[in-house]
Amino acid sequence: MSQDDGRTGQGATGTMHKPPQQQSRRSDSGGSELVTQGGKTAIADVVVAKIASMAARQVGGVYAMGAGMSRALGSMRERMPGMSGDTTQGVQVQVGERQAAVDIDVVVEYGVSIPDLGNAIRRNVSNEIEHMCGLEVVEVNISVDDVHLEDEDEDKDRQPEEPRVR
To answer: Which domain of life is it from (predicted)?
Structure first.
């Protein structure tokens, strides 16, 4: 039995082979199933959302993910013992039989070109999902919810000033 590294090419025995024909269909568990002659692979929606989130965060100029309220709740969740942040914060996906659509909420760094950033996010998210899941990404919708200013970090660390009136 030859082992394969998952790509078209040579397996452990050195023989060339073609990948089995893939067919994709929707699973009952809210994901996608890729069906081949050798079996099926089910991909949950949360997997696609995590891939999209990580791909968006890799793009320079993305400060945070999620709209205002979800970021605030996520920040509180991270501070609670035993809790961790939501890796899919700011990402919603719809996964079909062969395709996926992604909606992303981001906060951008001040000074970054938002149209260029949007294109870079779309490109990276699409490439990662198509590479890792084999799904065609039909759209990546991006909502810029805020612009991060460096002053905002300093304001949080500063002690409140004495009131001017008593």
So the answer is: Bacteria
